## 1
Amino acid sequence: MRHADLDLLKGTLEAKLAALGANYDKRADIVIQQTPDALDQVQLAAERTLAVSLLNRELQMSRRLKGALQRMDEGIYGTCLACEEPISVKRLQAVPWAELCLGCQERSDMAAAAGLGADAAHTVELEVA
Ligand SMILES: [Zn+2]
C-alpha cells in the first residue's frame, strides 16, 4: 500500500475515533439522568436502553478503530487476520477498520447469519457499512 493511502486512512480512523469520543460525553448525560415522574422514568428507561445499545455499538466500533490504528503501528495493517492475504485498498478505503479481506468477511457474515438468524445478519450489515 502506498504511504499516502495509509496516511489518509489513518486520518479517517483517527477522525472517526475522535467523533465517537465526543458522542460518549453526550450519552453519559442521558444514562445518569433521574426523575421522580413515572412517565418520565419510562421515557428515560427507553432512552437509556437506546443509549446503551448505541454505546455498545460505538464501543465495538471504537475497538475496531483502535485495532486498525494498532495494526498500522505494527506494520500489519491491510492484511487479512484470517487468511493473511492483503486486503484490497478499495475495500480499506470503504471500510478502513476492516480486519478481514472481502472473501473472509463474506464467509464470516454468512456464518453469523446462519448461526444467529436474520437479526444478526442485519447487525453485521450495519457494522460493515
Ligand atoms: Zn482473508
## 2
Amino acid sequence: MGLVSKFLGIIIAVSGIAILFFGSSDPVWSFGYYILGLILMSVGLTLVTSRQDAKDKKPPPPTVTEIRCDNPECTFKEIRDFQKGDYILKPMDAQCPKCQSSMTIHGVYVVREEEPE
Ligand SMILES: [Zn+2]
C-alpha cells in the first residue's frame, strides 16, 4: 500500500513536471497548464513524502526531569515528568518540601525501556 502510493506520487509529480516543461505552446492554455503542472507536482510530492512523515512521527520517548534541593545538607530529590521549558540548571519556582530551600533541575533524562535503572 505504501509503495503503491509512493509510486503513484512519483508518477503524478513527474507528469506535473512534464506539463510544466512541455506545456501547451498556446499562450491561452500555457498558464492553465502551468497551474495544473504545479498542482500535480505538489500533490505527487505530498504523496511521496507523506509516508515518510508518518514514519517519523513516533511518539516522543518518555522524558523525566530530576530536581534537586540546592541545600547541600539536604538530600531531597524529585523525579517528575519532563515539562516544556525544562532544562538542566534551571532554577525552580517551587521550594524544597523538606527544608524550604530553592531547587534546581539537575538532569533531564530520556527513559529507555530496554535498559531500566
Ligand atoms: Zn531541601
## 3
Amino acid sequence: MHLIRPESHLGAARLYHGLRRAVARGEVPVASSLVHTGSGGRRGTCRDTRSEPPMPGLDFQRLRSEIPMAEVLELLGFVATNGRGHQLYGPCPLHIAKEQRSRRFSVNLKTGRFYCRECRRFGNQLELWAAARRLPIYDAAVDLCARLHREPPWIHRW
Ligand SMILES: [Zn+2]
C-alpha cells in the first residue's frame, strides 16, 4: 500500500521549485503573513512560532504556592459577608449576585479553593483570576504577577 503516490510527491516538489523561482524573481512576497509587524497584539508574542522564540514556560505549581488566595480576593475586591477561620462566604466576584449580601461564593484560604453555588464555577486562585479577567490560564498568570509586582516564575531551560 502506498500512502504517498509518487506522482503527487513529484507534483509537490515541482510546486516547491516553481515557488522558489517565483520568490527569486520577486513575484511572491516572502511569508508576508508571518512577518511580525508589531501593530496590535501583545508585545513579545507572535502567532508564528517558527520565526519567534516560543513563549517561556511558567512554573504554575510555584505560582500557586507563592500567591495566596487572599491576595487574589483582595485584587477582586471581595468582601466576605460570613465565615469563620479560613472558610469565608460572600458575593461571587465572577457574577453579579441577585441579593446584595449574597453568600453563595465560598472560599477556603487554607486550601486556596473557591466554589460558587450560583454560577457553579470552582478552582484555585489562578483559575479565579483567569475567570474574573476572562483570560487563558497562561495570560492570567502573567497578568496576576504584574498586578502583584512579582516576577513570573519562568521555567529557565539552561
Ligand atoms: Zn458565581
